[in-house]
Design goal:
Blueprint (H helix, E strand, L loop, with lengths): L2 E2 L5 E2 L16 H11 L2 H21 L1 H20 L52 H7 L2 E8 L1 E7 L7 E2 L7 E6 L5 E6 L6 E6 L5 E3 L7 E6 L5 E6 L6 E6 L4 E4 L8 E6 L5 E6 L6 E6 L6 E5 L1 E5 L5 E5 L8 E5 L6 E2 L7 E6 L5 E6 L6 E6 L6 E2 L7 E6 L5
Antiparallel strand pairs: 1-2, 3-4, 3-26, 4-5, 6-7, 7-8, 8-9, 10-11, 11-12, 12-13, 14-15, 15-16, 16-17, 18-19, 19-20, 20-21, 22-23, 23-24, 24-25
Helix pairs in contact: 1-2
Amino acid sequence: MSRFNERGEIIQDPAPPLPDQRRSSPTPTSSALSCAAIAAPAVCLLLVVISIVGYFVASVQGNQGAQATLAAQSILETRVARTPPRQTPTPVPSVRPGQSDATSTGGSALWTPTPDTSSPSDFPDDPTTPEGPSEADNSRHGLIAFYSDSKGSNDLYVMNADGSSVQQLTNDPSDERIPAWSPDGRQLAYQSNRDGDFELYVLDLSSRASTQLTYNTCNDYAPQWAPSGRELVYYSDCDGNREIYVLSISPAQTRQLTFTTDFYNWFPTWSPDGAAIAFASNRNGSYEIFRMDVNGADLQALAPGCVPAYSPDGTWLALTSRCDGKGDILLVPAAGGVSSLLTSSPAGETNPAWSADGLLIIFQSDAGGQNDIYTMDIHGTLVSQLTSSSANDSSPVWQPTLR
């Protein structure tokens, strides 16, 4: 029932306490008794004064004070709720091929190589000295060799695994391509047309001297070392088709492994145990990866694709899906089976190669309009761009552990 005062106004009954305010407020007397039990006299007197003031303020303000306290608490809780929890930073992949820059994925800025204005005579004799690519970096993922047209013609270069300390190895108006590391990491085999057609050469990394290995009037391409370091497998058009050959370095002797008509057999690579050679061929109508033994026998089709590269333990093959430079990078068991797609973009991604520890894959991509060098892990993630310029940087290969 409503109650009225002497002016006829309705007297409002006090609101019930809020759920967290139902306990009675302490009186000054109870506060003084509690204080005397636990505090020194001076401290106790101060607390009693505060308690008395608070008691009378609460009596005057009544329910308004309780509501104000609850409102303040609500604002504080709202602010806390809007504050994101502290998180442990995690690595963010750098730019993927096809993206404009690293900021599109939250990664770090792309490395841009410093223009190389020196001549080969200015370079240190040994790239593992402090002036060249570092020995410490080599112990992790080795140096990276590649070829580039940054000075007009294609020449061979090396750099650290993070893209730093780029060093030019050859300086010739001819065309040097497709470097391949020797098993001891101290020489590079490559192809060059400096005598009019493509022949095979070996460059010593410490002296920078090159030795010619083949002498003919046809073209020899894409040499790859046997694990023994005493032979090279390559492909050649010497019989009118592109066939697979093996060259024994000393004494120099060649043997032909494939014999086809009007088909391409190319981009051979040796298995790490030295027992097999994988290569690409269109002998069945489309390009597939084949495996054969080192004498050309026991031929097996493994998977569709091109440009195979064995993992260091020999259990996997990295390859590209097409032979025209416009494919994606795939991973397939070395014995054959289902392929896993590692890259997928409109760009051309090809020429995969492995780091010495088998944890990373390096490749080239034309996502930026020209060939640049990228790395990724074996799941196709953590992609990083190592080179970025107007030049074409191609066929990157990782140095094996120095012996």
